Amino acid sequence: MASAVRKLYEVPGRIRKLGKGEVLYAEGDEAQFFYIVRSGHICVSKSVCSGRTLSLRLARCGSILGEQVLCHVGETYLFNAIAKTPAEVYEISLTVLDDYLRRRPQLAYDMLTIISQHMRKQHTKFRDMILYGRKGALCSTLLRMANSYGQETPEGIYITVPFTNQELANYSATTRESLNRMLSELKHEVVIESRGKNILILDRDALSAAIECEGCSAACCNIE
Predict the structure, then answer these.
(1) Residue 90 neighbours by CB distance under 10 Å
(2) β-strands 53-59, 150-152: how paired?
(3) How far apart are the C-alpha atoms of 100 and 10, rounded to whole Å?
(4) What is the model's pTM?
(5) What is the C-alpha to C-alpha distance for residues 95 and 79, in angstroms, rounded to an integer?
(6) Is 130 exposed, middle or buried (0-12, 13-18, 19+ CB in 10 A)?
(7) pLDDT tens per residue across all 224 residues of the chain
(8) With contact defined as beta carbons under 8 Å apart, do 180 and 165 qualify?
(9) Rounded to an integer, what distance in angstroms lies between the CA atom of residue 78 and that of residue 90?
(10) Which of 30, 18, 12 is nearest to 66 (CA)?
(11) Which residues contact 34 (CB under 8 A, 6 or more apart)?
(12) DSSP readout, the chain?
């Protein structure tokens, strides 16, 4: 998929830089651009009237954003995209991209491949949330973070990106109170350890068993 994303740089665009916490786009904004992340981390989330937030992705270098509005110029963005760290994106006008995709069948096919992979990732994530409850959602989130940002160590898999408990709760579709309780259970079971705002996974198999892991590839089972 990385090679398919690289081909999108053939489409004229511009580089845009974001500071930590800066909004790339907000749900409800008129959709005008498609983005490729060049550096940094950008959180994609959905907010509801109650104030709750569901975090869907943590995009990094090579990730695409705004793909839901392709071929729907004039529509609005469905989600929020906010820089978790200083970041840089390649910004392409949707009208320009639409013209290129119509004239270049191979590029359109590559885009279809990318979007198909994104759909598969989201479907498996929602499956874990619905079928295995709150703890299953957390286990799924930790496995996806490990596949995206995990570093193998003699002790286990160290997730190199720091997350607050509230951020983990947002990715796991639960409250911070429930998240704290579940983290305590996993620590008591010697499945994970906290290292400040980072997490060390001690027993990956236990997390996999909690969601009856089907052995999806890291390309599908990730948080990006």
Answers:
(1) 19
(2) unpaired
(3) 9
(4) 0.89
(5) 20
(6) exposed
(7) 677 888 899 999 999 999 999 999 999 999 999 999 999 999 999 987 777 899 999 999 999 998 877 766 668 998 999 999 999 999 999 999 999 999 999 999 988 888 888 888 888 888 888 888 899 999 999 999 999 999 999 999 999 999 999 999 999 999 999 999 999 999 999 999 999 889 999 999 999 999 988 877 777 789 98
(8) yes
(9) 20
(10) 30
(11) 64, 65, 66, 67, 69, 70, 91, 92, 93, 94, 97
(12) -HHHHHHGGGS--EEEEE-TT-EEE-TTSBP-EEEEEEES-EEEEEE-TTS-EEEEEEE-TT-EE-GGGTT-TT-B-SSEEEESSSEEEEEEEHHHHHHHHHH-HHHHHHHHHHHHHHHHHHHHHHHHHHHHHHHHHHHHHHHHHHHHHEEE-SSSEEE-S---HHHHHHHTTS-HHHHHHHHHHHHHTTSEEEETTEEEES-HHHHHHHTT-----TTTSS--
Map tokens 């970041």 to a residue.
Answer: 87
- What is the token pair recorded at 102? 């119509």
Place of tokens 């408990």: 165
Tokens (6 digits) for 53: 């937030």
C-beta separation of 87 from 40 below 8 A: yes
Assigned token pair, 135: 């703890």
